[in-house]
Design goal:
Blueprint (H helix, E strand, L loop, with lengths): L1 H21 L3 E2 L3 E2 L3 E4 L8 E7 L2 E9 L5 E8 L10 E4 L2 E4 L5 E3 L12 E3 L6 E3 L2 E4 L1 H6 L11
Parallel strand pairs: 1-4, 2-4
Antiparallel strand pairs: 3-12, 4-5, 5-6, 6-10, 7-8, 8-9, 11-12
């Protein structure tokens, strides 16, 4: 009897862990050649990834709520590793991890830290916050095409 209960508990914990992990790394639907509009209400401590097709190049923005409650945005590519094509981030627990070099990056540093192995920040002057939305213009997204040219995110 204890073995059946133990196996059931193990199966439930495994399922719960799989569900929790699947909640991370949510990629929204791709939009094409237009401004990116992000609904602030959907942003949580689990990073959301917003792909935008700009003239045939997939550019991806990440948005996350930092521990202090502020909404942070960045391009989902590493300032150091982007040339490898694998310099993008996936969330693991409470950190972002570069898929090229493995460097871990705290959510509190998104949009604050610039340089090195960190997501390319999208600063306040590069977006428009109005009411419940953040808008990143198609023109600004197009400026990032070069850093996504070799991107191999699947």
């Amino acid at each position: 009897m204890k073995t059946k209960i133990g196996m059931t508990v193990l199966m439930l914990l495994t399922a719960a862990l799989a569900f929790a992990q699947n909640g991370l790394n949510t990629v929204k639907p791709v939009i094409s050649d237009q401004d990116l509009v992000i609904n602030i209400d959907e942003i949580t401590e689990n990073a959301l990834f917003y792909p935008v097709d700009i003239g045939g190049t997939r550019v991806e923005v990440l948005a996350v709520k930092a521990p202090d409650g502020t909404i942070r945005t960045a391009f989902n590519t590493c300032q150091s590793c982007y040339r490898s094509g694998r310099g993008f981030y996936k969330q693991q627990g409470t950190v972002l991890v570069c898929q090229n070099c493995g460097k871990r990056f705290r959510m509190s540093q998104v949009e604050v830290r610039s340089g090195g192995c960190s997501p390319v920040p999208i600063f306040k002057d590069d977006k428009t916050v109005s009411g419940n939305t953040i808008t990143i213009s198609q023109e600004y997204l197009a400026k990032a095409r070069d850093i996504f040219a070799r991107w191999k995110r699947t």
